[in-house]
Amino acid sequence: MDELLQEFISETQETLEALAGEVVAWEADPADRDRLDAIFRFFHTVKGSCGFLNLPRFERLSHAAEDVLAEIRADRRSADPATVSAVLGIMDRIAELAEAVSLGTALPHENDDYLIAALSEKEEDEAVLPEAESAPVAVARQQGNGQAAPRTIRLPLSLIDQLMNGVSDMVLARNELSRKLRERTGDPELESAFERLSTCVADMRDAISKTRMQRVDRLFTAIPRMVRDLGRELGKRIDLLLEGGDVEMDREMVEMVVDPLTHIVRNSIDHGIETPEKRRALGKSEAGRLKLEARQSGNQIVIEISDDGQGIDTGRLVGKAIAAGRLTPESAARMSEAEKLDLIFHPGLSTADQVTAISGRGVGMDVVRANVERIGGVISLDNRPGRGLTIMLRVPLTLTIIPGLIVRAGGLHFAIPRAAVVEILHDNNETLHIAEVGGAKIATIRSIRHSMIDLEDVLGMEKPAQTGPRAVMVVRSATGVPFAMGVSAVDNHEELVIRPASPLVMATGVYAGMTLPDNGKPMLLLDAAGLANAARLPNILDDRAAREAEEAVDVQGVEMVPALRFEEYSGERRLLKLSLIERVEDVDAHLFGRSGGRAYVRLDDRLVPVANGHHSFVGEKVAALRLRDGTRDVCYPVAAVLDIVDMPAVPDMIAMHGTLSGVVVIDGEHLEVVNPFALFAALPDEPIREKGRGRCLLADSEDGWTREILAPLLRQAGHEVVLGLPADAPVDPQDVVLFSGADLSQASELLGCRVVHLRASPRPSSPQDGSIYRYDQDALMAALAGSRG
Amino acid sequence: MNKLYLLALLAGTRVAIETSEVEAVVKLTDISPVPGMGAHVAGLSALRSRVLTVIDVAALIRGEPTPPDRRGFAVIADIAGHSYGLMVDAVYDICQVSEGELPLRGQLDPAWLPHARGLVEHEGQPHLLVSLAGFIEAGALAHVA
């Protein structure tokens, strides 16, 4: 009996969850028979089962709802909002009762009569309700709601976990067996049998890990109901669009994302989407659009929540921050738009003017971000003031597999999440300077000072003597300021299967979990924030203020801009404004070439001009700066990239000549500054085209002979072949147009390039006929070559 | 009276553990230390695909860690969803005891006081009745302290 009851409760709870969305969708489209039937069936099933299980309150509630729905089915009643609300009310009460039964607590003694009365009551109000309100939420789902659900069975989670463990054991046993087999002489028969076993085990592991996955639909089930209720409460109309519900993610991950997602949706309805009147006044459609979209991108799930509401008013956000004393008006004036937007994640700041029941209850975007980051996710905003806001959550596919770095310290190995590591340096790097004062270590990396700790010190280990340089990693936790951490070495980068460590170990606060790599030696996962806490690092947020103050001093003096210091092949040291440099990369030396007196380099299948004319190099790789003026690329090969320094925006001595604009003195060294204006002005006007690579344009692209015989022939001969004339792109003078029909002979003259006319008969039709017989390969090739002149 | 007890030697003292708490007894192999923990957490050890947190019970009681070369057996227990291995010096027997659980007698060493729940007599020898979960709790407290 107990088992039956338990089954009934969990089934009811699950159906309820799925059904809430259905009811809302049905309200939007009362003519939708399938949905009405589904809801009716639910109440009918509940009524039937609880009569059997002797649950009178369930029975009464579901009976009342069933009656009303039956009337609607018989078209004796319409599904107006009040009825839907009443039905939803009954569903809520059934959920509460189910919860109470499953916990074995007393059933809440609230008045069911009231709810049941609400069902029949609204007939009088019906006429009063304005027509427009009848469908506050329209729900559209991209993927098949109408399809029959796949057949499923119910399994206890513990069984699945047991299966997972079993498979993990199997994998380890297989690994051991494989080691043992390798030690012995190879017997092909044995090996192939083992191979088969391996494949089976791997397949099994894949299949089992899928049981952890759950469709994102589950995340979305509660949304339509919530949107409907909020919309009604706030008098807003919302078109809800749910997409990508069939994307799968880790069961635990779904649990972790529910809260942040709910909060964002609430915010969007409360603060984002305007009232219908306001929207009308703004020239928007009355119903606001709210779109939730999930998709998989690599090993991440991206959940996008976008609305077409008013967006975030950064001005007001800044005003609030200033009023709250978190920001000075001066520093606010220097903030970029993105930095201003970032204020939304500061605790206690909200653009809501007043606290409403829906959001702004002190649980702000700061909590949302903290929650998302705790599971290794990232949250980003795309604010379109007045037009809407898109919030993007990127969360890992599963909680348990994360990319991690394996570091060595004190003779032991530790893992650290890859996401927490900003950069890794060796302690003999020139850009790194480590100073010690009063026991505290300070690492200065490119003139930013970080607190520095050695992992061995924090964990109370011996630091073994080491011959090579130690590694210093800049570590940033989800909260708090980045710090530098010294370790013996960074060994490896791996996808790690993380499992929780026992509470005893977690209590240290410096570990976030553990992992069992293939070598069978358990390894601990470090918690960046915990390490900072354990080392009692100053976690001062006014680091930013200090930086701003520093910048302010600079601004009052000479305006400084960051610049890259590099060495030319000629040996001079020069500077180039950093903002112009798109990136620095190593280019294969053989990609450089020279043509028509100009040096070029072949990058990503494009020819890019080389700024300083170098084209032949010793060695395989050339360090090159990639510059861009917005439209054109330039490559600037250099002998060595030295470092990044601050240089005055105006050189100390102006000396315009060639591509130089002047000289500055930095650290007592005279450096020439490259003039980007002159650099780009000296470029050839036209993009470089490779010689001898005119295209063959085949006008008769529909013709079978052209397509199947001519095109392959030309391609084999090394020509670039384009089927059909380019629709609107200009034809290059080096291109050749080939055609066989006569109709094109005039048009082709307009193209301004050479034309080759092919004919099907071996003999020319007239002495004036300049065409070539189409199987006369020599003449054809000669014509193509000739046209290249 | 029909409860089974695991009789073992722990920090030089004869103890009895209810078998309902015990999952298995294994010989300890590699233990990866957990730096930053007190001596009572010997480290982590892999048992097939499971990772055990190995507790040096002797260190918990006497305050002195067991030297690595004297690490013998571990009693495996699943406590609050995590797997632990509790180090013992030796394991003797699993048996029923005729008289069942007896109240404590005599002046107990203060180090044992928080852990002993009673006495169990087997073949004329008294054994301290201890609880594995109790050691884990004590371990958590030891860290806080």
Task: Tell me about this structure.
The complex is a heterodimer of chains A (789) and B (145). Chain A folds into six domains: 2-135, Four Helix Bundle (Hemerythrin (Met), subunit A) (Up-down Bundle), CATH 1.20.120.160; 158-200; 215-313 and 351-396, 2-Layer Sandwich (Heat Shock Protein 90), CATH 3.30.565; 410-543, OB fold (Dihydrolipoamide Acetyltransferase, E2P) (Beta Barrel); 558-681, OB fold (Dihydrolipoamide Acetyltransferase, E2P); 695-786, Rossmann fold, CATH 3.40.50. Chain A is globular and about 95 Å long. Residues 123-136, 141-147, 353-362, 552-557 and 688-692 of chain A have low confidence and may be disordered. Helix content of chain A is 37%, strand content 28%. Chain A has 789 residues and is an alpha+beta fold. In chain A, the strands form eight sheets. A six-stranded mixed beta sheet of chain A has the order 1-3-5-6-8-7. In chain A, strands 11-15-16-14-13-12 form a six-stranded mixed beta sheet. Chain A has a six-stranded mixed beta sheet with strand order 28-20-21-31-30-29. Chain A is built from 23 helices and 36 strands. In chain A, strand 32 (695-698), helix 21 (704-716) and strand 33 (720-723) form a beta-alpha-beta unit. Chain B has 145 residues and is mainly β. Chain B has a single domain, classed as OB fold (Dihydrolipoamide Acetyltransferase, E2P) (Beta Barrel), CATH 2.40.50.180. Helices cover 13% and strands 46% of the residues of chain B. Chain B contains two helices and eleven strands, in the order βββββαββββββα. Chain B has helices at residues 57-62, 132-144; strands at residues 4-10, 13-18, 24-27, 41-47, 50-55, 73-79, 82-88, 90-96, 101-102, 116-122, 125-130. In chain B, the strands form two sheets. In chain B, strands 8-1-2-11-10-9 form a six-stranded mixed beta sheet. Chain B has a five-stranded mixed beta sheet with strand order 3-6-7-5-4. Chain B: One of its GO terms (biological process) is chemotaxis. Chain B: This is Chemotaxis protein. Chain B: Residues 2-141 form the CheW-like domain. Chain B: InterPro entries: CheW, CheW-like_dom_sf, CheW-lke_dom. Chain B: It holds the Pfam family CheW. Chain A: Keywords: Kinase, Phosphoprotein, Transferase, Two-component regulatory system.
